[in-house]
Amino acid sequence: MDQAVQVELVERLLAHVEHHSTDLEEPSQRSVSAYIDPERFERERRLFTSGPMALGHASMLASPGDFLNLDGVRPLLLVRQDDGSVRGMLNVCRHRGTPVEHEPRGHRARFTCPYHGWSYRLDGTLAGIPHRRGFPGVQEDTHSLQPVAVEQTAGLLWAGGDPRMGALTDELRGFGLHDGVLFGERARDYALNWKLVFDIFLEAYHVRVAHARTIAPMFLDNVYLVDPYPPHLRNVFPKRTIVELAGRPREHWRLREHANVLYVLFPNTLVLIQPDHSAVLHVVPLAVDRTRLLSYAVIPEAPCGDKARGHWDANMRILYSAVDEDFALGEGIHRNLASGANETLTFGAYEHALTRFHAQVDAAIA
Ligand code: FES
Ligand SMILES: [Fe+2]
Fold first, then answer.
1. Cα(37) to centroid(ligand 1), Å
2. Tens digit of each residue's pLDDT, the chain (366 residues)
């Protein structure tokens, strides 16, 4: 992040501290049906099947032949090519539709279907058919794996085309997101609508109460900044130590040392910038009431020794205990949505990033 941007954001935060304020917008209402209506969910799913959506980190595919097998919204294989690029294809055999790859991650020279043994090259092209005589019309150009556009932007793997990141690509590069190793990967399924994950993360109002026993003592109560980069968003959650910057020269102001910066990379990814690493959460909607969360930290280098490992283990424990607190609340909300108690949920003047996120979803499925 440019120093000028860091200074601007810190100045805004210090002004909020001085005036006991935060970024505010008009309150809004969100219909409960947006979270539980199966017909609406089908329209939202198309966001994820047509993309773009981030699904992993570039380092997951370190060498040619490394693959990532992602089910969930649609069966996707992402494969590192010999020329260093990444290709995407549907993990669906063109003979009779079997998944050609069953391992979630790994390395192959070719993909061979476990049913009748049709094989495909790393780029998805049809390579071989046992007893080929029986399939006179089947050719490489008619029966290769169906391609899916894949991009590598800001260190993340995106399926479905250009993520329209604009200035955020350089901002995330500046935070080193493209250039680290993964630590503490976790995959969990939760009984809630996927949009509740964003509702949970996109405000500072809950921190003092919901995270009283974990992270709340570190953060200023109910202060945050929200800046839209449509369709994405940047939020800044200041720590109490931010006030120390007021007396220091601006060229030494380092935002990430005194605030968490949280990016929403629309439609499904959260990137949380912390002082010495980042955490990434990919949200995968499985059903209207079921959501998978793929999460990991991107740390500067592989930990060597028990001390370094202990440091990163402690970091992940803090992150995941806050996430577990949030998701327990989110699942409780989802169970209650159909109770009839609320026809709408209320997003207060402090919770306007939720309003913006839902508006983006509405626009994207319109
Ligand atoms: S379904 Fe894949 S080889 Fe037959
Ligand atoms: Fe939270």
1. 36
2. 999 999 999 999 999 999 999 999 999 999 999 999 999 999 999 999 988 999 999 999 999 999 999 988 899 999 999 999 999 999 999 999 999 999 999 999 999 999 999 999 999 999 999 999 999 999 999 999 999 999 999 999 999 989 999 999 999 999 999 999 999 999 999 999 999 999 999 999 999 999 999 899 999 999 999 999 999 999 999 999 999 999 999 999 999 999 999 999 999 999 999 999 999 999 999 999 999 999 999 999 999 999 999 999 999 999 999 999 999 999 999 999 989 999 999 999 999 999 999 999 999 999
**Residue 113's domain spans which residues?**
58-152
Residue with CA closest to ligand 1 atom 3:
116
How many Cα atoms occupy the beta-carbon half-sphere of 332 within 13 Å? 7
pTM: 0.95
Lookup: tokens for 242: 């931010």
Q: Is the peptide bond before 267 cis (omega within 30 degrees of 0)?
A: yes
Residue 346 structure tokens: 């209320």
Which residue lies with its CA nearest to atom 1 of ligand 1?
Answer: 96
Ligand nearest to the CA of 97: 1
Instruction: Identify the CATH number of the domain in which residue 123 sits.
Output: 2.102.10.10
* 157 in any annotated domain: no
Task: State which of 116, 129, 135 you would mutate to test the pocket of ligand 1, scoring each by most atoms of that ligand within 8 A of its C-beta.
Answer: 116
SS3 17: helix
